[in-house]
Write a structure and sequence with these properties.
With 588 residues, the protein is mainly alpha-helical. The chain has helices at 20-29, 32-66, 74-79, 82-103, 111-120, 128-143, 151-168, 173-192, 195-207, 212-232, 249-281, 291-305, 314-322, 327-347, 354-375, 383-399, 402-413, 419-436, 443-448, 459-462, 483-492, 514-517, 532-535, 549-556, 579-585, and strands spanning 476-477, 499-502, 508-512, 563-567, 573-578. It folds into three domains: 29-233, Clc chloride channel, CATH 1.10.3080.10; 249-284 and 302-448, Clc chloride channel, CATH 1.10.3080.10; 466-585, CBS-domain (Roll), CATH 3.10.580. A hairpin with a 5-residue loop joins strand 2 (499-502) and strand 3.
Amino acid sequence: MPEPTAGAVNPDLRTGEPSPWLRRILRGLLGQERRFWALVVGVGLISGLGAVALLAVLRFTQHLFWQTHSEHFLEGALASPGWRRFLVPVLGGALVTLVSLVVGQPLRGHGTAGIIESIWVKSGRLPFPRALLRGFVSIIAVALGAPLGREGALLQTGAASGSALSGWLRLGPGQARVLVACGASAGIASAYNVPIGAALFGLEVLLGSFALELFGPIVVSCVVATLVSRTLIADHPSYVIPHYALTHPRELVLALLLGVLVGGASALYVRGINLASDLLDRLPSWLTPFMPLVAMTVVGLTAIAGPYLMGNGYDSVNMALHGTLPLALLLILPLAKLAVTSLCAGAGVPGGLFTPSLFFGALLGGAFGMLVEHAFPGGAAPSGAYALLGMGAVLAGTTHASVSAVLMIFEMTGDYDLILPLMLAAVVAAVVSRRLEPESLYTSVLAKRDVRVPASVPHWLREEGVRSILSPATQRVPPSATFDEVVVLLLEQPAGADLYVTDEEGRLLGVISLDALKGHLPDHSLLQATVAADVMDTGVQPITPDLSLAEVAARFGHTELERLPVVDGRRRLLGSLSKGDLLKRGRF
């Protein structure tokens, strides 16, 4: 029997690509637009089923090593002897190290940052086999005690499925980018049962736009993935908490104060994660594969005293939301969690940073609430309410995405009566955190690699005006200045600078440029009688502070000058603006 032609029927087992005939059938079944929407649904379905499979692996692994039948292993870890608390995380580190050595490259790197880079820089391309391997190892590591989030695996799997489908069907880069964002958003939606918040996360953080053309595909994928997870996993909020309400004006002021404090803590969280990564990057390259083992050994040592830092921290967050954690733990655990999370993420243990940030914020908010209770005994809201606000505020502060943060926390808890203080705390935290740390938890990683993500605010809102970059005019002369004085002042000016002629009230009369002066000198015998008014150019059109930089750029297109004078409404000289400063600061 003759062997089939290579690649004619069978898929490439190394890349997973379907054979050409199968691709032609898929491409011919539907029109281009209908095929894209079918892929959007398919990505949501794959993400939902992937979440079900990965969470089943999580539960099985936790039951095997911690003897617990639930997803939350804190009770089982507390009941375990000290030697098990130590050895199980070490085993997780050994697994990550072994896989890194086998595949020949570390599994480190923030998954969400890689997805953002794929969307903006790599036209939606993600290595599918590596993403699946990284997701599987991540979910095992979290089950064995890695202080990271389970969402990293689900997000990576969803995004990789979108990338793989777009690559198999030879979609254009625009549709590929959208499918990757759909997969990542669907992964978050299925992980936490938050379809609305996940859709807005995809738009606000991954795509940087709320355009209606993007909204539809993201929503459809999140809805499909959430339906799958609700059907096969559970249909209830991630955190079932008592009903809280903060409606007194005093409590809104406290929410504002909490937003300021947590905004600073969010900037600390971002810098802590990056600092650990930077320090570990300086280690010799031969040590890199073994760092996951070292980091998880540290986690195991801390777990001997208490297992609160292990895993994604769901149980500790739940206790903070119910107000059952003591104040000492509420104060100590957030910084300790930040330390071990930074260590493991920087060392190369794969996992998400989303859930650890919720741990960080919930416990800080719970501590704030307990301190408020001590300050106002009998008249303050329960500490659990402030724990919920802290979760939302840290999420907004670390991601710089307050809209999706508010809706995610609302969907996770189902407590609508806290929406006003939650919105206030989240927005304030995002503003404070952005002021202290301009990059978010995800874009800071990209900024170190000189990958810049376009701003998501409207161009007219982020556009700077003339006043922000004008320079004062230090040299100006009256129209009666002698020619000798004019020449001396021009020669003293820096390259490209001109001399401005003004009257007694500071109004601009004209511009004297050294280059324009060359070849246009009056008769040499008349130089002694020549003054500034004789050689100034009155045809230069000045600019005003209310012009946008784009409008100024158009003005420079009609002049040879390197600088333009800036005047007010009465034509009084305010300064000048150089073409070089314009090109550095402007967005056109």
